[in-house]
């Protein structure tokens, strides 16, 4: 298929933007990219999809996502972190069934595809949610999924015993670490290579040092990457200090740091932590919506980038964001640091788009195949329809994408050379069936947890 007459933001090494551009997809890859007239003359026999008035970008890469939590959207709004976790999220997740987990995964993936995400990193999928169902949902949908199976053996958070997990979520070494290795053996590389299985370690305080060290040893021997929440909230700093460590000195002591590790949030860091990230090539995920909504703090993204840390972008889960739309996340990422630094040139739109595309690909170890639009790379891209009042006029296409467009402006999504969204509609999944099932399953989970009244409207409902 030859896609023509678009403005193409390549995010290639030169960061080329091609006006009246065309892109040829053959099989799973991009075979040619250039000016429309040149490609039409050279590939006259190819079927054509005309994209005048659209902007084409590389597929968005969401490097921090809790697919199970999309079923819990709106159930824990406007709460501080202890209440959010202990009174809402953990009791709700502790009442999941594998069928709920599969429905939640389908809901998450549908929303991500419709809003332009072509690849995501699942952070911590618990055993009770049914990991096979998550893999099945990725396989059926056509998305790329790096799927973190939870690793843990301690049922608390940080060093405070009152932050106890719901009993339904507590796992031991056998269920979590050994189970993750089994899932890696079963699923890694499936779905034409679109499925990758990761270790999804719990935050320090939720994993014993012995289990961390065993996991990192297996990570290196079996080439299984690791993702983990870290230094998200002040309570995390208290935990590290209680062990006479900073966040990164602790992670270093249990062999967590390195180019196969993606650390999430990373709000409360010292200068020495940043230096350690640079030294080890460890990646960082910025989650601005989650960090602001939960009042966790603001990640030092400008300092991290200036130091040379690879920073990426993630939405986090729906209970601390309420949307899986990466385009909305780019807008906040571009705005937040301007006010936190009192510098309007801090983290410009071009940098934000890099966070959401090529930087994400680097963190996932897939920069040679996704993250930019180049000949020989996988055909993963998003078409944004700019022919609308709320999107006009525009002069800089990158600014238009980052600051103006949202997921609702996505018209076409291609993953692995296949259109999975066309005319703003899912091709591979039944959207109506997905949201209808999610609606009733969510109510069932809430009822099982005894929280129906607690999550309802605060104002009188008549």
From TrEMBL:
Domain Amidohydrolase-related: 55-420
One GO molecular-function entry: metal ion binding
Presence of keyword Manganese: no
SUPFAM superfamilies tied to this protein: Composite domain of metallo-dependent hydrolases, Metallo-dependent hydrolases
UniProt keywords, alphabetically: Hydrolase, Metal-binding, Zinc
Protein name (Swiss-Prot/TrEMBL): Amidohydrolase-related domain-containing protein
Biological source species: Oleoguttula mirabilis
CDD domains found in the cross-reference section: ATZ_TRZ_like
Gene3D superfamilies: Metal-dependent hydrolases (3.20.20.140), Urease, subunit C, domain 1 (2.30.40.10)
Pfam families documented for this protein: Amidohydro_1
TM region positions: none
Keyword Metal-binding: yes
């Amino acid at each position: 298929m030859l896609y023509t007459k678009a403005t193409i933001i390549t995010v290639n090494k030169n960061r080329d933007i091609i006006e009246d551009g065309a892109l040829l997809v053959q099989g799973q890859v991009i075979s040619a990219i250039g000016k429309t007239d040149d490609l039409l003359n050279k590939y006259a026999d190819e079927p054509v999809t005309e994209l005048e008035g659209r902007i084409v970008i590389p597929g968005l890469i969401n490097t921090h996502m809790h697919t199970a939590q999309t079923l819990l959207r709106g159930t824990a709004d406007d709460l501080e972190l202890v209440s959010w976790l202990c009174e809402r999220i953990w009791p709700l997740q502790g009442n999941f069934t594998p069928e709920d987990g599969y429905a939640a995964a389908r809901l998450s993936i549908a929303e991500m595809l419709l809003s332009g995400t072509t690849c995501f990193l699942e952070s911590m999928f618990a055993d009770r949610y049914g990991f096979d169902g998550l893999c099945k949902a990725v396989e059926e949908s056509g998305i790329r999924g790096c799927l973190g199976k939870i690793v843990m053996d301690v049922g608390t958070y940080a060093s405070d015993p009152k932050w106890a997990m719901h009993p339904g979520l507590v796992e031991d070494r056998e269920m979590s670490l050994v189970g993750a290795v089994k899932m890696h053996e079963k699923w890694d590389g499936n779905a034409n290579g679109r499925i990758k299985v990761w270790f999804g370690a719990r935050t320090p305080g939720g994993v014993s040092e012995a289990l961390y060290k065993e996991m990192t040893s297996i990570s290196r021997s079996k080439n299984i990457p690791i993702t983990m929440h870290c230094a998200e909230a002040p309570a995390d700093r208290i935990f590290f200090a209680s062990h006479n460590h900073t966040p990164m000195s602790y992670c270093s002591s249990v062999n967590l740091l390195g180019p196969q590790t993606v650390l999430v949030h990373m709000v409360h860091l010292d200068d020495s932590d940043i230096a350690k990230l640079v030294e080890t090539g460890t990646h960082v995920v910025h989650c601005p919506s989650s960090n602001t909504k939960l009042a966790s703090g603001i990640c030092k993204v400008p300092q991290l980038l200036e130091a040379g840390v690879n920073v990426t972008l993630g939405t986090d889960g729906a209970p601390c964001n309420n949307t899986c739309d990466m385009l909305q996340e780019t807008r906040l990422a571009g705005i937040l640091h301007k006010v936190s630094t009192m510098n309007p040139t801090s983290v410009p739109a071009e940098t934000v788009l890099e966070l959401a595309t090529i930087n994400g690909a680097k963190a996932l170890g897939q920069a040679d195949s996704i993250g930019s639009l180049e000949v020989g790379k996988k055909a993963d891209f998003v078409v944004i329809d700019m022919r609308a009042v709320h999107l006009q006029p525009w002069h800089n296409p990158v600014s238009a994408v980052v600051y103006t467009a949202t997921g609702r402006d996505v018209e076409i999504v291609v993953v692995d050379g296949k259109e999975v969204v066309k005319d703003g509609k899912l091709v591979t999944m039944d959207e109506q069936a997905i949201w209808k099932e999610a609606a009733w399953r969510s109510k069932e989970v809430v009822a099982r947890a005894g929280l129906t009244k607690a999550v309802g409207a605060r104002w009188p409902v008549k």
